[in-house]
Amino acid sequence: MHGAPFDGVLIDGIHNVFLQFPRLQDAPLVWPVLFEMLRKRGVTVVTTHTHFDLDSDIDESRFARFAADISAIAGRVEPLLHALVSAADFYIELRTPKGLGENQSSEFHIVFRTATGQTPSGKPCLWQRQDLRVVANHL
């Protein structure tokens, strides 16, 4: 191809990769080779991963089944996540305020957990989804 080269790649939903492509877990070199190739080419990579917290208010049999499923998935994706977090320039956490379900809130906390060459404050910013607005250091 003779077009402009890519300078960025978004890998959205890494938590779904092993569900959609289960044989990838049998090829442990796919991820290191992919990310090293992108790094050598100077391509910026943004990767998202969703961590699910289980609601302990659901009945015990459903909770146990979901917990077992999520533990199995976490075991498959854990090496990949470890590699990503270790090599990441930024690690940003986005979550609903404590006590509010995902569908009950249009506000989310954004916290920078790590930032290469910087010390993040750890103070959350507030993202107001409805207004598409971020309020820094709101707490």
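(the above was protein one; protein two follows)
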Amino acid sequence: MFRDDTLGVTSVIRALFLAPGCYEPMLHFFYSKAWNLDSLREAWFSIVASSGLIQQVGGKYVLAGDGVKTSKEAYHMPGVKKLFQESEDSSKGEYIFGHMFGAVGAIIAKGTDAFCVPLRMSIQEGLRAAASWEGSTIPAESHVQQMVRNGFQVADRIGSCILVLDRLFLTTQAIRMQGELNSVRNGCSLEIVTKAKHGCTAYTKPPARQKGKRGAPRKKGDPVHLWDLFADTSAFSTATATVYGEAKQVKYLCKDLLWGQKLYRELRFILVSYDNTRSVLVSTDLKLTPVQIIELYSRRFRIENCFREFKQQIGGFSYHFWTLALGKLNHFKKKDEPDQLSKVEDKNDRDKILDKIRAIECFVQLCCISMGMLQLVSFYEADIHEIDSTRYLRTKRRNTLSEASVIHYLRRHFFTVMASHPDSVITQIIVKAQNWTKGIDGAA
């Protein structure tokens, strides 16, 4: 939170004026088996839930999930692969080499302002070959399946949740897994709210089987091409909904239909139209009202804002963990050629690669916690004018502070806070690791 640059562990040493001898122990911290990543995540889930700020709809906590791609130029970093870049930003290439992370966050709201607090992130592509290695905890599931399972892990800790995802995740894999995992849980459940693609087709319920008719009963009725229903809006209802922070007059049509080849699960489809915008939203929870589903999906964009601040303010993807135990990345590898991980046979090399993967995920998880702490401070300390006045903003938030304002204030006043609280455990840990003469010389 306090470093002015994102050049690895040395950035932390410079920011806190630590002794140069702290460099090796700080590196070792990310490989240490003295602490468990899953336990850390569960503790963080509980802390965020205990804040009382997570938005709830129908008695369920609201989560947002999505994938984020980060460019990595390292040739010996596990999990780096060629990725298609969907962004419409003209400054980004169509393809990049990097890591694909899956993230799940909690939506916290105060008035019209809202944040997405990152709860967990993990690499979800490029590591499948290492899933079968001895001692590996890497899942062999697809990105979509891992996102659903991660949502259940949060729900198991904090209570029943609604996971809001983009249209990439409306797949039979995701819906089948969500149904199967819900069926084996007595208490906490997870529902999914997402968006349908343009060519989505659903089915009516099959007619009742006539007595005496031979053959297997029908599993589906007539097909319904959802986007064709926008041609006649006379059956649409009108309501006021809060969409992306603004009250909008929306027109909607609610349909409970069967969806998914060979699955045919009943889902709630909401055809919504406002300001020349048309969308088909989908919910696995048939009890949610159309307005609730519309407002829920509009909250999903908060995770995109979270990714931006995570990169720009925290430097959450500025890790540099690599190993020569992994062969050099081939930028021109063909699809049928084995990847780097498939070529690793030596047990020691595999262990080193698994350590690097864990170190990366530990670093990113700690950055998630740092980001979340900034956001919670933004909500709790929104009335402190001193924080807001230290950094000029042309347009300010109404009910909260921005993450950038809080982090700017902390960087300027952290050592003053330490001096005024000398008995604090954190103050004692930092002072013990400091060597002011060497620290200042090193920074100079």
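Reviewer note on protein two: The two ends are 21 Å apart (CA to CA).
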